[in-house]
Amino acid sequence: MSTEQPPVAAAAIQELSHMSERTVFFLSDQTGVTAETLGHSLLTQFDGRHFRQVTLPFIDTVDKAHEAVRKINSAAESAALRPIVFSTLVQDDFRAIVRNSDGLHLDIFDVFLEPLENELKQKSTHTAGRAHGMSDIESYMKRIEATNFALANDDGAITRNYEMADVILVGVSRSGKTPTCLYLALQYGVYAANFPLTDEEFDSGTLPEILVSQKSKLFGLTIAPTRLQQIRKERRALGRYATAQQVRFELREADKIFRKYGIPHVDTTEFSIEEIASRILDSTGVERRVRP
Amino acid sequence: MSTEQPPVAAAAIQELSHMSERTVFFLSDQTGVTAETLGHSLLTQFDGRHFRQVTLPFIDTVDKAHEAVRKINSAAESAALRPIVFSTLVQDDFRAIVRNSDGLHLDIFDVFLEPLENELKQKSTHTAGRAHGMSDIESYMKRIEATNFALANDDGAITRNYEMADVILVGVSRSGKTPTCLYLALQYGVYAANFPLTDEEFDSGTLPEILVSQKSKLFGLTIAPTRLQQIRKERRALGRYATAQQVRFELREADKIFRKYGIPHVDTTEFSIEEIASRILDSTGVERRVRP
Questions:
Q1: Among A247, A220, A245, A222, CA closest to A232
Q2: ipTM of predicted complex
Q3: pTM score over 0.90
Q4: Which of A14, A252, A279, B70 sits 20 to 30 Å CA-CA off B105?
Q5: Do residues B175 and B109 both lie within one domain?
Q6: Inter-chain contact A49–B122, Cβ cutoff 8 Å?
């Protein structure tokens, strides 16, 4: 007898695992970013759960609303557990269609629009696609320009534009500088440059004059040695770069520099990119040029 | 007499403009990203309004909760209009403190947690900082790796990694390829490369063999000529690059290539980065590797 499962049994097992899995839908007449963000914040409050996640964006016709209902109902039929639907549909007629699906329907406009209308003494426009939309070409340009700034001023390649920077991140290689700068640019239009701390700074124990002259903009990133070693190994396993000794040496020297110049810094080990970015803005007081 | 306003009058005018402005607070025990996203989606439904926006993140102690209340109440006192407070505080005790401020209090956990607890037959953890937190080191690494991939495979510099790409964006210079690739990487962990269409492709009317071999991954970006001209002028005002004739020529030739190879494409003129990214995922069916 073969040790492999017969195909019928395998299919049955897959069916069972699918049946016990709950599907979460993110519905939007737009990108779905708001529904995903809202839903994710709420679902992370329930430990040990796994959800199949489906985003249905750009529901901007009656047909698409009915199609979304079919998908939700199909998921409801094939699983023992009712789907959960996070919805950010603005238009009443589409919302009315989707509300009749077989899922648990949670819609931010259902709940929050009325108190806001009362407070602002103004009817809402009920127009689709305003958030994360091209409502503001100026915002788009600011984000693009900030992204170009981050790319051009990455990794200390160029230092002559530091006058224009809102913030300059410093830290050892692979401490998270580049993704954080790009996130600050894309999300908030903030001009973020970064400068890597290397042997040159460690040997002298000082920062280059150009950085000292912009000291108020400096913000340091640090990270636990074991974590940094792990990250560096994935990049370049061989040589001194990813050894425990080297990683510890660099982080210790970077810390000395942070303390010498009084540079505020954050340990990125336990943080997501969003958290690092938020802590930098919170700590430095740098203004968001754009709000997504 | 000086033409400048006397300081007292200037201060009074500033006071008046401040009084008529409504402040919106985004409160969070975490980054504030969810509160900002939710609030922004709702507020864009009210036309012609301008709000002063203040994010108060990392409210994770009783003291910080009281400090937030002081800031809200101070804004309430100095303006004729009550502040609006979008809150995503998970812990009941902090939420109770903040709810007593003089603002209009809108909290997603107040509204949605109970129906979710009932549906999932599970109490929520009420633990701060789970969304956008480092709950998942694997997710963090995926986003970082995807960002590194986007940077390494930007602008057609390297084409040998296209096997690993989830999607390869093609389009003329400044059509939005780079920011979109970076956004797809940071937000969703998607591996996005991009290749610029230039004279080489326009002269031959064909794509390089390496792109043809990955045809199913190609996605085109196009843009209105006037808008592209405006963007290019800000980058390099002189020379052929930003002339109406050149811009029209390139866009026309790019469109021929899209049609010749049957490449799906989107016009980015009216779209934000989020919209472009969502439309690419929606159109190609590329799976999000990470959900923020």
A1: A247
A2: 0.82
A3: no
A4: A279
A5: no
A6: yes
